Amino acid sequence: MSSLASRVPVGSQSTTVSSPDGQNIGAVAHGSSEPPRHITPRRPPVPIIRPLGLIPIERLNYYWDTLRPTLAQLTYADNFFITGKPNFLFAASKFREYPFSDVSEVAFLGRSNVGKSSLLNALFNRTTKPIAHASSKLGRTKTMNAFGIGGSNQGGVRLKERTQDEHARVIGRGGLVVVDMPGYGMGSRESWGPEIIKYLCERKQMRRAFLLIDAEHGLKPGDLQILNIMRRSAIPHQVILSKADKLIDFKNKIPINDDKMNKRLAKLRETSERIRDVVQPCKERRFSALGEILACSAEKKINGKRLGIDAVRFAVLQAAGLEPGVGGDPLDLGIRVNSEESTIRHVQSEASTPQYFNDTGI
Questions:
Q1: 160: buried, middle or exposed (CB in 10 Å: 19+, 13-18, 0-12)?
Q2: CB-based contacts of 59: which residues, under 8 Å, 6+ apart?
Q3: Domains held by the chain: number
Q4: What is the 3-state secondary structure (H, E, C) of the chain?
Q5: 160: pLDDT strictly greater than 50
Q6: Are 158 and 250 in the same domain?
Q7: Residue 84: what pLDDT?
Q8: Tens digit of pLDDT for each residue in 1-59?
Q9: In which domain, by residue range, is 29 found?
């Protein structure tokens, strides 16, 4: 105690010394006999609470070759899909059944029960009145189903029926067509694979294929096979981690402290990084997947918005060239397929031959 007293400045009347945990050691008086004053122990800091709806987009998604969308761009994408009126256009079991089209298309594909139909219902804001039929039964989607949205200035996207003088045609410039592909793997049919690959390789209106990967289970043999086909055929494609809520495992517990959320998001990032090494190998980067991996959930709604769906909406618009720009010029935030790649994509349509398919049921 004397050593403590020797450090008290001259002229001070009373100094209280506390231990690091806030406990009062006592008072050291200089020229005073006052008893030690009681000091309330310091409370531990209150943990910072962050609602799950405020997860930064760069923590949920993994951008390494592209720019993350701004809030204004995400809002625009939300408005496009929420205010638009999606409608079913057609179903095709074979590629030759596809109608002509003036509208850009994107396709969603993945393993059976990976959540394609559920994601599309969330994308179209039709979770209460589903437009894409979802089921826990494997292989529920048996045809290539096309849906149209947007293009309100031209009366919306619609199918103009075939006449004696004209073929059937999808019309509605300024709109978008989204194709829901049958799942591969368990519950699929061998005949589906060649038709899907024909569409991906030969459909001129197809701007990007979105491959859904289950965030909890990661890449499976069927996923690796379809990635290899798209890379060899120079098909523009991007990976989306579906059911990301299971990997984050928050179970609607709001609020949650930062430490727990950081650990869960770190786990999600590790998964994205492992997948990146596969979908964008260094030696084949030219025709590999787009340099971003999105994560989302079609089931969990946080602060009124489904997890990550706004970023998926923007990626779809960006792929189709419908994203907002400056002065009317569209923003190019991703990798576009050039004329050389397009030629390779057409020439390598032999990827649809049976030799590309194994027992995974692609």
A1: middle
A2: 265, 269
A3: 2
A4: CHHHHCCCCCCCCEEEEECCCCCEEEEEECCCCCCCCCCCCCCCCCCCEECHHHCCHHHHCEECCCCCCCHHHHHHHHHHHHHCCCEEEEEECCHHHCCEECCCEEEEEEECCCCHHHHHHHHCCCCCCCCCCCCCCCCCCCCEEEEEEECHHHCCCEEECCCCCCCCEEECCCEEEEEECCCECCCCCCCHHHHHHHHHHHCCCEEEEEEEEECCCCCCHHHHHHHHHHHHCCCCEEEEEECHHHHHCCCCCCCEEHHHHHHHHHHHHHHHHHHHHHHCCHHHHHHCCCCEEEECCCCCEECCEECCHHHHHHHHHHHHCCCCEECCEECCCCCCCCHHHHHHHHHHHHHHCHHHCCCCCC
A5: yes
A6: yes
A7: 85
A8: 444 444 444 444 444 444 444 444 444 444 445 555 555 555 444 343 344 446 788 88
A9: 1-44
Neighbours of 281 (CB within 10 A): 13
Same domain flag for 112 and 184 = yes
Q: Is residue 329 located within the same domain as residue 288?
A: yes
Question: Model-level pTM?
Answer: 0.74
pLDDT band at 248 (very low <50, low <70, confident <90, very high): confident
165 and 110 within one domain: yes
Residue 140 sits in the same domain as residue 208: yes
For residue 310, pLDDT beyond 70: yes
Asked whether residue 54 falls in the same domain as residue 120, the answer is yes
Say if residue 194 is in the same domain as residue 69.
yes
The mean predicted confidence, pLDDT, of the chain is: 75
Q: Is the pLDDT assigned to residue 122 strictly greater than 90?
A: yes
What CATH number is associated with residue 304? Answer: 3.40.50.300
**Domain match, 216 and 105 both:** yes
Phi and psi at residue 48, to the nearest 5°:
-75, 130
Residue that has been written with the tokens 């890379």 in this structure: 231
pLDDT of residue 115: 87
Instruction: Give dist(CA 113, CA 139) in Å, integer.
Output: 7
